[in-house]
């Protein structure tokens, strides 16, 4: 599964598949202090150029000065306030700029590297597990379960502090989590059935489904240039599918269902905009999605797993490797999605769109090298055309959104 969680709420049909649930920042000023209501999602706002530090907000410290704590030697009865220019300060209260704040490009580059690295490692380890343990419904549950445990431990130690959840928010997030769960499970069914590179080629069609939903479900007109840019995507996927050596209908249809599920997730996510920060939102969606994934895993694969699935896997690789593989694939799944969120919140839409396309190229390339998958010349050309089409679509889409923002600001 790809990085699909919690990006900017202004554009639910961007080239990436992250859930977009953020409301704009609001500021409140009183006569005595300045208070800023700035949730984590606003800190990483693309338009504001904010920074995100591993899911924790860099909060400004406000110094209130009155007659008992004068700034100068002359006493004053008038209360004043001083706002520091950065989020960190030394013991003497003097503001100083840290290395990360001074070189934000290095931090963003590190986030991109870790996003790609974790995504590639996840896809490789995930496919290796399916080679000796072909139970995608159960493995999907493991992905989410490990992430949920990680989130619960993070909440327990206050990194980040758990955001409260009320009934209204829960009702809004349930459809989002349901679509997230279905898309995640179907992606894994496809990964287990066909080559990783082929699944990612099919999933390159996701922008086509997003555009179709925007045009025909939400009634938002799509420019002709965007539709034209999708033509090479459809052509490339068709070419790759016709000569794919690992092709089977289960893998193809599962990947297509995944595309549709994530498209509807984008629709519901727009309706579920909230002030909650992205890290907490992803945690809650993971928890709810886990409950959706458990029943089909028990009903479809439960009997076979108890009869021979677990014992066969342990006989092939051993108990320690089997358990460690499941644990680490779950950790990589959760961390790469969280890193994708943090990365995409730090950059402009165009950079984010290009980064998402390059991520898919990395995954396809590394999977072919690691697993030695043989591909026909037509499949290779078709995959290249599809990726180029996605890049063109992402570029045009990002430019259109940027023009809309500039027009609104003017």
Automatic annotation (TrEMBL):
Q: Where are the transmembrane segments?
A: 103-125, 137-157, 172-196, 216-235, 247-267, 279-298, 318-336, 357-373, 379-396
Record keywords = Chloroplast, Membrane, Plastid, Transit peptide, Transmembrane, Transmembrane helix, Transport
Q: State the Pfam families in the record.
A: TPT
Q: Which intervals hold domain Sugar phosphate transporter? A: 107-394
- What membrane topology is annotated for this entry? Multi-pass membrane protein
The record's subcellular locations are: Plastid, Chloroplast membrane
Q: Name one GO molecular function term.
A: organophosphate ester transmembrane transporter activity
Superkingdom of origin: Eukaryota
GO CC annotations, alphabetized: chloroplast membrane
Which PANTHER family is this protein grouped with?
SOLUTE CARRIER FAMILY 35
Q: What is this protein called?
A: Sugar phosphate transporter domain-containing protein
Organism the protein comes from: Papaver somniferum
């Amino acid at each position: 599964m790809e990085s699909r969680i919690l990006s900017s709420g202004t554009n639910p049909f961007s080239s990436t598949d992250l859930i977009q649930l953020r409301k704009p920042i609001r500021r409140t000023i009183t006569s005595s202090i300045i208070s800023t209501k700035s949730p984590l999602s606003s800190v990483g706002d693309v338009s504001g150029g904010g920074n995100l530090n591993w899911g924790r907000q860099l909060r400004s410290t406000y110094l209130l000065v009155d007659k008992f704590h004068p700034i100068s030697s002359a006493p004053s009865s008038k209360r004043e306030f001083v706002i520091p220019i950065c989020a960190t300060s030394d013991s003497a209260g003097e503001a100083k700029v840290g290395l990360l704040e001074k070189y934000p490009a290095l931090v963003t580059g590190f986030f991109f590297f870790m996003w790609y690295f974790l995504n590639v490692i996840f896809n490789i380890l995930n496919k290796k597990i399916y080679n000796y343990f072909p139970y995608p419904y159960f493995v999907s549950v493991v992905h989410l379960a490990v992430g949920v445990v990680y989130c619960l431990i993070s909440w327990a130690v206050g990194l980040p502090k758990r955001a409260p959840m009320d009934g209204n928010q829960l009702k809004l997030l349930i459809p989002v989590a349901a679509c997230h769960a279905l898309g995640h499970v179907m992606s894994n069914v496809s990964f287990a059935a066909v080559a990783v590179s082929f699944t990612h080629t099919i999933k390159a069609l996701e922008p086509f489904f997003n555009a179709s939903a925007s045009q025909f479900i939400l009634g938002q007109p799509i420019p002709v240039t965007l539709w034209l840019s999708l033509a090479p995507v459809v052509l490339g996927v068709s070419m790759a599918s016709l000569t794919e050596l690992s092709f089977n209908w289960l893998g193809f249809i599962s990947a297509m269902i995944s595309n549709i599920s994530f498209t509807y997730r984008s629709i519901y996510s727009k309706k579920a905009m909230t002030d909650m920060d992205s890290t907490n939102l992803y945690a809650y969606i993971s928890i709810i999605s886990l409950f959706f994934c458990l029943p089909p895993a028990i009903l479809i694969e439960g009997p076979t797993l108890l009869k021979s699935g677990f014992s066969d896997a342990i006989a092939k690789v051993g108990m320690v490797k089997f358990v460690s593989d499941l644990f680490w694939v779950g950790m990589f799944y959760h961390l790469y999605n969280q890193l994708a969120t943090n990365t995409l919140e730090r950059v402009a839409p165009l950079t984010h769109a290009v980064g998402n396309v390059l991520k898919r190229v990395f995954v396809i390339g590394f999977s072919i090298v690691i697993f030695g998958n043989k591909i026909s010349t037509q499949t290779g050309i078709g995959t290249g055309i599809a990726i180029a089409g996605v890049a063109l679509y992402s570029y045009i889409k990002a430019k259109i959104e940027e023009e809309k923002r500039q027009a609104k600001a003017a």
